Amino acid sequence: MLEILIYLFENYPHIELAPHRDALALKLTAAGFNGDEIDCALDWFSDLGTLNSAEYPASLMHSRAIRFYAEVEQDRLDSESQGLLMFLEQAGILNPLQREWVIDRVLALDEDEITPDKIKWIALMVLWSQNPNQDYLLLEDMLFNDGNSLPIH
């Protein structure tokens, strides 16, 4: 499913400019993706566009509290992934609210294994969905220049 999301992200960085769901499904099918995975990915992609701060306390954006993970979150995010999120937050790439959105999208991802590379992609998708005109050079560099990037479809 993440391959489909990366494909969508690269081809439609502005969610609101993406074609209608049925047209998008046809394009993804033509690109060789599986029908069930397409439906899951389109749901995930659509939900990405609905993230908003109203669902979280207003104080979260500027919080300096340490994030403890619930058991269900620990099941999906190993210590390396949790460390990556902490690094992105301490480096000023993610604020606490954006970190929560990344965790939300990780939990919604239909993948057996969540790796740090997948977290980087999700973080980039969350950031671009909020501000597509912003450069996220450090995160992009982490994704594309470490030699271990996920293959792109």
Order of helices and strands: HHHHHHHH
Overall strand count: 0
Low-confidence stretches: none
Largest pleated sheet: none
Q: What is the first-to-last residue Cα distance?
A: 11 Å
How would you classify the helix and strand content by structural class? mainly alpha
- Shape call: globular
Beta-strand content: under 5%
* Total of helices: 8
**Radius of gyration from the CA trace?**
15 Å
Please, how many domains? Answer: 1
Mean pLDDT: 85
Helix content class:
55-70%
Give the tags.
153 residues; mainly alpha; 8 helices; 58% helix; globular; Protein Smg homolog; Smg
Describe how the helices and strands are arranged.
Layout: H1 2-11, H2 21-30, H3 35-48, H4 71-76, H5 79-90, H6 96-108, H7 116-130, H8 137-144
Description:
There is one protein chain. This protein is an all-alpha fold. 58% of the residues lie in helices and 0% in strands. Helix 6 (96-108) packs across helix 7 (116-130) and helix 7 (116-130) packs antiparallel against helix 8. The model has no long low-confidence stretch (mean pLDDT 85).
In summary, what is this structure?
The protein has 153 residues and is an all-alpha fold.
